[in-house]
Design goal:
The structure is a single chain. The termini are far apart. It contains twelve helices and eight strands. It is an alpha/beta fold and 261 residues long.
């Protein structure tokens, strides 16, 4: 059921991977954005009221498309993560990973013993029993990315240790919270923030681990992060797409009627 292999193939072939976020609960949005052709859909639980049931519906909607699903869970506690893993996403995004210890805990939640502490109980992830337990267990680790979100100055300082942690498949930069940790919330273009963004790129270059960034849609920003070596980019999402298009349509209609008579 995993789409992660197609993302890994694109990255291996030096192609860039683009996705968008989903914050609303209606899974029709995921189906639509998947049909648009995004490589992945970032389903957010950290800053939304979405629970496991809504996430399940989003993941099911994405299955009819070619989009992978990354779920950002609200924390590192296994009670948040275990029900989501068993639904069968292609990746789990762990917010605010600031140390190797944080990364080890996140990986352990996703892995079965003896490598980790995941309890056995996959339902949808194992196609409701159509995939044998043996087959599922042997492939579960490689079929789901464990993605660490780097969004604090402490995480940047510890990035080498985080990336050396066994089982970390990827990481993603959160520019706004990184700026906030420097006392510069909302100032992602500040030279001090950019210094840390460049430091992330410098440290990441020594590891064979793909990384991404979550940014608003801006071609200059995309270019900056491609130059830093980012291989996958989350560009905006449902409410921003809706707001931007709604404003544009209303403005065009208003301008037209003002000149029509």
């Amino acid at each position: 059921m995993s789409q992660i292999n197609s993302i890994e193939k694109k990255i291996k072939n030096n192609q860039y991977v683009f996705g968008c976020s989903v914050t609303f609960s209606d899974s029709s949005i995921t189906e639509l954005l998947g049909d648009v052709g995004f490589d992945f859909i970032w389903i957010d639980m950290e800053h939304t009221p979405n629970g496991a049931l809504q996430v399940k519906h989003h993941i099911m909607a994405a299955r009819g498309t070619e989009s992978a699903t990354f779920v950002r869970v609200p924390g590192h506690d296994d009670k948040f993560v275990k029900p989501i893993i068993d639904i069968g996403p292609d990746g789990i995004i762990f917010p605010f990973i600031n140390s190797a210890e944080d990364a080890k805990k996140a990986v352990s939640i996703c892995r079965y013993p003896p490598e980790g502490g995941r309890g056995f109980g996959p339902q949808r992830a194992a196609r409701y029993g159509l995939i044998s337990s043996e087959n599922y267990i042997s492939n579960s680790d490689k079929n789901m990315w464990k993605i660490m979100q780097i969004e604090h100055v402490e995480a940047v300082n510890n990035l080498e240790d985080i990336l050396e942690t066994d089982g970390v498949d990827s990481f993603v930069v959160g520019p706004n919270d990184l700026a906030g940790s420097l006392g510069l919330i909302g100032q992602t273009n500040h030279k001090e923030v950019k210094k840390y963004m460049d430091l992330i790129a410098e440290k990441a270059a020594h590891f064979n681990i793909p990384y991404g960034v979550a940014i608003p849609f801006d071609l200059k920003l995309i270019e900056e992060w491609l130059e830093r070596g980012a291989q996958w980019i989350e560009i905006a999402g449902d409410f921003l797409f809706l707001a931007d298009r709604a404003k544009d349509v209303l403005q065009q209609a208003t301008n037209f009627t003002e000149n029509w008579r």
